[in-house]
Automatic annotation (TrEMBL):
Name of the protein in question: Phage tail tape measure protein
The keyword GTP-binding is assigned to this record: no
A Pfam family it matches: PhageMin_Tail
Keyword Transmembrane listed: no
Species this chain originates from: Campylobacter jejuni
Length: 351
């Protein structure tokens, strides 16, 4: 029997297996988290196991989320808060731990916002998802692609979320929505330097490229609303030509969809900034966490925590024995390599 088969057998083996798996998951956390004074990996491991007893997510998944927080430079105390918040998003938004951890970390980093602001954004995203044809994970996907360009111009996190939700609700997939929105942001930011054809198209809207750019940096949402409204008022025969001249053939259709769905966009802006959104993420989490499926996950997590705690007692001994066996095998391998013909003799004896 191999050592792996031995330690995985029976109740002790189950505990050892869970402990080894959790130790490996926490090793990834230790690599990327800067521990605050008085804190260490042992305390964080205990806290993550404790979290798994109240949050319907496995300890290993919580460790993966914690590692994502460490990768964006959060200290160990903030990593705990990040892990708790992202876990609620995972459950509320029905996303995998890996996807939500990576996405939220990137969006937070791109926008340069606090964890409290990130929770507020979670409320906006959940409220948009509840009141539109867009799903939270789709909105997050689009935001991950567009937040940098939107922030550069000056759009708020809620405004970026609303535009992302609108394109999804109007039938665009996350990848198409992302490239279309970035094209729109690019036009707003460089409107004064897009060539004579585009300048002529702006003139048909009663504005100049220089005016649109300045307005966009003064008040981006007001400028975008004005820009889209003026396009919507054009004669249908003229509208597509203007869109092609401004956005090119690649994105003209996408912009036509947005212009034709301005009511959807206005509703998204309202839902993203509505005070009623406050606590939306927590309420969604509470509803989903109360299901029988998640109750079973919590029960499994409780057993897993017990198994990890029991198995961890034996890990130093397992590590010591494994190192000893490795040394013995390596020594035999070295000796057989030095003596010609010894491999054949040993093989014959074993046979």
């Amino acid at each position: 029997l191999s050592l792996g088969n031995v330690i995985r057998g029976g109740i002790i083996g189950k505990g050892l297996g869970e402990a080894i798996s959790f130790e490996s998951a926490m090793a990834d956390v230790r690599k990327v988290v800067n521990f605050d004074e008085g804190d260490d990996i042992k305390k964080m491991s205990a806290d993550i196991l404790k979290m798994s007893q109240t949050l319907p997510v496995t300890a290993n998944e919580l460790a993966a989320i914690a590692a994502a927080g460490g990768q964006i430079g959060l200290g160990s105390k903030d990593v705990r808060e990040f892990t708790n918040l992202v876990t609620k998003m995972k459950v509320a938004f029905d996303m995998s731990a890996e996807d939500v951890g990576d996405s939220v970390a990137k969006i937070k980093n791109i926008l340069g916002i606090s964890l409290k602001d990130m929770e507020d954004l979670g409320d906006s995203i959940n409220n948009l998802s509840d009141n539109s044809a867009s799903k939270a994970r789709e909105i997050i996907d689009v935001m991950k692609r567009t937040a940098a360009a939107g922030k550069q111009i000056g759009f708020t996190k809620e405004q970026i979320a609303a535009l992302s939700s609108s394109f999804i609700s109007l039938g665009k997939g996350p990848e198409v929505a992302g490239t279309a929105i970035n094209s729109l942001y690019r036009v707003l930011a460089t409107a004064d330097n897009m060539g004579t054809k585009t300048e002529s198209a702006f003139a048909k809207l009663g504005i100049s490229g220089a005016f649109l750019k300045q307005a966009s940096f003064d008040d981006p949402q007001k400028a975008l609303d004005m820009f889209l409204q003026r396009i919507s008022k054009l004669d249908q025969k003229e509208q597509m030509g203007v869109l092609v001249d401004i956005f090119g053939r690649e994105f003209a259709d996408d912009m036509a969809t947005l212009v034709g769905g301005l009511d959807t966009y206005k509703e998204a802006l309202k839902n993203a900034g509505d005070e009623a959104k406050k606590g939306s993420l927590q309420r969604e989490f509470d509803t989903r966490a109360a299901t029988t499926e998640n109750s079973i996950i919590l029960m499994k997590n409780a057993f897993n925590s017990l198994a990890v705690n029991l198995g961890s007692v034996f890990l130093p001994a397992i590590s010591w024995v494994s190192a000893g066996i490795s040394y013995l095998v390596n020594s035999i391998t070295y000796i057989t390599g030095l003596v010609p013909g010894l491999n054949g003799v040993l093989g014959g004896l074993i046979a």
